[in-house]
Each structure stands twice: as C-alpha cells, then as structure tokens.
Amino acid sequence: MKSLIAARHSWFEATARARLAGLLDAGSRHEIMPPATSEASPHLAILDIPGAFDDGVVVGSGQLAGQPVLFAAQEGQFMGGAVGEIHGAKIVGLLRRAMREKPAAVLFLIDSGGVRLHEANAGLIAISEIMRAVLAARAAGIPVLALVGGSCGAFGGMGIVAKLCSAILISEEGRLALSGPEVIETVAGVEEFDSKDRSLVWRVTGGKHRYLMGDCASLVEDDLAAFRLGAIDFLAQWQEPAPSVANLRVTQKVLEDRLAAYASFRDGLQVWAALGIAEPEAVPMLDRDELVALKEGLPT
Amino acid sequence: METLDFRFDSAPVSHPADPALCGVVGSGNLEILVKAGSESTACQVCIKTAARGFGDTWRAVIGSFAASHAAGGTDIAINDMGATPAVVSLRLAQALAEYQGAA
Prior knowledge:
The complex is a heterodimer. Helix content of chain A is 45%, strand content 13%. By secondary structure, chain A is an alpha/beta fold. A 7-stranded mixed beta sheet of chain A has the order 1-2-3-4-5-6-7, sandwiched between helices. In chain A, helix 4 runs parallel beside helix 5. Chain B has one domain. The relative contact order of chain B is 0.33. By secondary structure, chain B is an alpha+beta fold. The model of chain B has no long low-confidence stretch (mean pLDDT 94).
C-alpha cells in the first residue's frame, strides 16, 4: 500500500512544468518563450502586483508516445491560472502555430478560474481569441485535448474553452463549470448555492459528475502517468470530425433534452438517480475504475 | 509591491548552464530565475515582492546565500508573493543547483 502511494505523483498538486514532465516523452519538452525570454504582465506591473516571468502559462512542443504535439499548460498556483493579455496571446500563438505545423494534437493543460479580472477587457478579449483559435485549429483538423485536474479546475471563460476542445480528459479532483461556486453564491445567495459545501461543489462540478453526464470523454486517476496514458489513448483513436450543421443540431437537441430533464434539480445526487444509478449516494466513494464500470452499465 | 536590487561578492559558479527557473509566484511562495550575469565574482539579484518593508531581511538572506554558495557570475531575478526567509533560502539553493545542471 505504502509503495503504491509513493509511486503516484498527483496531477492536482503538481506545478504546470511538473505536469508536462510527467505527460510528455522524457526529454522531449521544448518551451517556446521560456521564462528568461518571455514578458511579464504590464497590467499587473501598473497595479503594483508582482507578475510571473512566463505570465502563468508554459507553451511549447514535445512528443507523446513518439508523436509530435504542441502544449499549453496553465499554472494554477499563479493568480488562479487566470488569463491575462500575454498569457492569452501565448496560447493563441501556439494554436495558430499548430495550424501551420500540423502536430498530432495540441495538449491543453487547463487549470484556471477564467479571465484575470485585473486585466479587464484585455483578459476578456484574450479568452475570446483563445476560443476562436481552438475552433480554427479543430477546423484545420488538429485535435485539441483539454486535460483538467488542477486545483483551479476549468471555470469561467476557460470552462467554455474546455468544452470547445475536441475532448476533455478529467480526474475526480478536476472541476468544470461556467460560473464558479463562489460567484454563484455571491450573485444569487447561499440558498442558491453553498460554495463552502465542498462535497456539493464536487457533486455539481467535479470530474465524476462531468464524466457521468458525458461532458468529458474520459475519467483518469489523479496521477501524472494516468493522464499520460489517457492522452496517448486519445491520440490513438481520435479522428477530428468535419464541422457540420447536422452535428450541431444533434448536439443542440441533446442539450435541450438535458435542460428539460434536469433543470429543476439542485444536486448531482438527483441527476445521478435520474440517470438510472440505483445508489447515487454511493457515487462519491467509488474509485475511478468502479465509476467507469458504473457508467458503462447505465442505460443510454 | 517593492523592488529591491542587491549585489554581493561570491565565488564563481562551477558549471554555468542554461537559464533555470524554480518555484511559482503563489501565496507564500516565489519564483527564481537564474541566468548568466556580467561579473564572474559577483551575484546580482533583483527582487519584486508583494510584501513591502522587508529590505533588511532580504539583504540578510541573500547575503548569507552569496557567502555560503559559489554564485558568482549569476544574474538572479525573483518574483515574490510573501515567501518566508526559510523558503527563500531553500529556493535559492534549488535554483542554483538547477542552473548548474542538477535538474
């Protein structure tokens, strides 16, 4: 047991660079605009706040199981992984480079609360440019895989960006939503959503819930090696579908049905019961393999 | 924010290499970027810190680092979000080791 724990390296606790070291083939990582040549945020400097040399995101190229990939990894420990102007420009530039270089995939290690509010409109514009660039890369046939399992999850604009990617790989610890729990509580009151109730937060935004709902393509353990294997599996079987109006209509119908079925629910427990899970209260204690088996046994 | 600049004499580093970064600018933490400097027997340090008024403490910590390590010929830049002196000392030693290829 002890050796099992020692052999695991948590994705949740790792820094962006440590995640990349565990994800990519050993020694293959090449950073574009590394800290010594990147620019810190001019907006934070004006506000008299120390910036980060790389503005909180690591971009570059590497190999995954021998295939060329580009990567962008957000550092959740710096300002909640929030997207500022330079941070966003690095990601957009990387996605545009992908359209030129045609790597096997872009790996997008998301760990972010969304827009960096200090940078106001510059941050908002950066997020919308990332959205456009993700879609442009996919339209050019480059898969963009979102990996979500950091302490900040994927919220706000980055929640939308995650859903625009080809697929999402998530861990139980990962979270994915639009407005963050504290934002909802601030705007609509604690009766609407109690952001201090961590169990509730995970039942509504957490990796298990997102996987059960079909929002994420796969659920992996909170482990660097598990994320690597998950990404390799994705690369092996994914074909980027050609964009079509018919596919959009199908997706729209699925979302409308989902809204009609679940809009009145307050808790993941209710949704899981409606999905046909006999013991929804047991879900939070299931391990990754048990949960995947449970989902595969559900009526579709 | 406060910006502090220090220069301390220090023995030349043994294996200068590519620029090295360690740490993250998060609460109670800091990031340190070590790259080649202009003087082989001095270590130049520029600090941007969120906590004002700790210049004397920084001087003592960096001075002790420069005296106990061969850090000459380096240019060290620091972004700090309130790291304690013990954390700063450990990160400096780690950054210097990585700069010399111990990653």
